[in-house]
Amino acid sequence: MAGIVRFEEIDSWKLARELTNLVYGLTQLPAFSKDFGLRDQIRRAAVSVMSNIAEGFESRTDTQFINFLGMARASAGEVRSQLYIALDQKYISDEQFKNAFSLAEQSAQKIAGFISYLEAHPRQRRVSDDTPEYLADL
After folding, report:
1. Which of 11, 21, 66, 124 has the fewest other C-beta atoms within 10 Å?
2. pTM
3. What is the CATH number of the domain that holds 19?
């Protein structure tokens, strides 16, 4: 197991980054790009997934980190819901929907696994910014 020193090393953050880039690509499609409300909302939700993971990692306690991870997971659910709207409005194809939905679902599952790990291995407080904080392959 490798220790996680930076949020950029967290697998769920990496997946969330992929999801964000995919969402940005999809929302640049002609029909989708004209639905300003949905376009902006799904982008904010995708950005929220990766941002909450990063913000939580940089927070002071594991309790705060777990709360941020919960918000990140909720945002992944929001992305999945909004993908249905994009599909129903024919802004994206079935294949594009399946790819994005799968990535959002994988992100949520990774986040849930990380939450479970942190809850099973509680620590009182973080010690130092320059030492590995988590020994997990998540």
Report:
1. 124
2. 0.86
3. 1.20.1440.60
